[in-house]
Amino acid sequence: MSLNDDLPEYMLGLFGSSHMKYHMKSNPQSDPTLAELTEVAIRSLRRNEKGFFLFVEGGRIDHAHHDNLVELALDETLEMDKAVATATQLLSEDDSLIVVTADHAHVMTINGYSGRGNDILGPSRDLGRDSMPYMTLSYTNGPGFRPHVNGIRPDVTAEPNFRTLDWESHVDVPLGDETHGGDDVAVFARGPHHSMFTGLYEQSQLPHLMAYAACIGPGRHACVSAAHLPSAHFLIALLALFTSILLR
């Protein structure tokens, strides 16, 4: 279906028997991007005069991190960023609330003091105390653990598949899957009542803030305010993983 086609009243898009392919491994002729899916959803839902609620998830970011596939994880984060940009272009800031957040962090981190311009996906310019290189980005745990030989870490940059999409970044603790992290995650909001999304608060507060702005559910609503826009459309975009190096 072309983005320029008239959209039917009801739609169901199934593009595979399991998860969508990673963007960097997808077929652009048959696999839609998250931004394209977001555009079709908004164009379809905004025809409702009473507004709408849309939930968008960049779930493959999480999958890539669990497998220590750092390049795929970062690329999927960029794809989520494009989806958010699409939403901001299609929806007015005057009557559309957009909220972007994460449900958890992961245990990826930046190592060392690499200089400006150093490849973020490559090794640091410095060596470890064992005279071996270490990656600028790595994980605390996960499947990418390499056994040490005589107390020395292996040189991961010499591996045959180094820097391929399926190359697992090195980790400290061997696990079958990388775990979630305990970091606080950021919340971004744009549109009506966006000023409520500030400060440090529990994640469970988010739906209450959105319900207040959208005038739905029990409790206090923004509808009692003269500044409330009754015809508002509401887009809630969930960023399934918020890495510690992007957008923070």
Automatic annotation (TrEMBL):
Cofactor: Zn(2+); Mg(2+)
Sequence positions that bind Mg(2+): 57
SUPFAM superfamilies: Alkaline phosphatase-like
InterPro entries in the cross-refs: Alkaline_phosphatase, Alkaline_phosphatase_core_sf
MF term (GO), any: metal ion binding
Keyword Magnesium (UniProt): yes
Listed EC numbers: 3.1.3.1
Protein name: alkaline phosphatase
Organism: Heliothis virescens
Lineage: Eukaryota, Metazoa, Ecdysozoa, Arthropoda, Hexapoda
